[in-house]
Predict the 3D structure of the following.
Amino acid sequence: MKISLLTIIPAFFFASLYLQAQSDWIVAGEEGGKLSIQIFDEDFALEGKQIYNTACTSCHGMPEQENYTMLSPPPGDISEDRFKNQKDGELLYKIQKGRVSMPAFENSYSEHEIWSIVAYIRSFHSGYEQEFPDLEGIEIPVLAMKLGYDENVDKLVVRVSDEKTDQSEGVNVRAYVKGMFGSHFLGKAITNAYGIAYIPIDSKLPGDEQGYVSVLLKADKGYGNAKLEERIQAAAPTHRTSAIEGRHLWSRASKAPIWMIVFFNLIGIGVWLAMIYIVIALRKIKKLQ
Ligand code: HEC
């Protein structure tokens, strides 16, 4: 009796995992019917593309290339009918909640960001027509942001106001620093009762010569969202030296040390001598024939 229980329970466990993994992934009820009020235009899809490229390509591959990772069940290519035939809300729900080897993203990305991924996925579905929700009676916050910096605590101070309802608490704020090689995520926070969110920024971050950096802020609450990009003096002043300044092999000869010039020329002479020797040797061989 004991033995059979010990074998049956894990068997059931793995069988249910297996069945769950193999069965069609159906989103129950209302969840799948959710619609985005944001238009799935090029800009919005571009936002989603950035997220897709960092968070999804490792398994789903590059769109239209069918180069997804072989997992069970297979993740699939986002341009396929399998994705096309789903409702917007179903895609949203699956990305938020995940299942087995598909991770849940609801804690990493806001609903607004996940809609942007859906917009990106839709950009590969020819003939797709977006449906919009009925917004009658729904209050859409109109968010405005102001950015400050408190150098005593090394934090960005973001003040959000909802111009329509005057309720500025509970807004999700995310901050990025825009650098030469794309954006760097600083952190996120939720506004307090005064509509203020604090996000730490490291003042050792390299800025320009005066210590300015470009900060991108994104805020969302319910159906409302806003974006703000501003340069602030919150980073370390950095003097950028040119890559060809100073003594380098690839810079001007006048900057090179004497031993290097001598060495370089000796090698050149050596190569020429070797080539002349080979030509002479070849002629000798020809004469012998
Ligand atoms: C660790 C690998 C992995 C990563 C990373 C991943 N996925 Fe998935 N995804 C899967 C697998 C595996 C499935 C199939 C799951 C199933 O059917 O149970 C899947 C399924 C899905 C589905 C549902 C497809 C369907 O046919 O129902 C969507 C939508 C999706 N992924 C979107 C995304 C997006 C968007 C991202 C990035 C934000 C992402 N996935 C990142 C592995 C991954």
Q: What stands out?
A: Residues 21, 25, 55-56, 58-60, 71, 73, 75-76, 82, 91, 94-95, 99-103, 105, 117 surround heme C (CB under 6 Å). The radius of gyration is 30 Å.
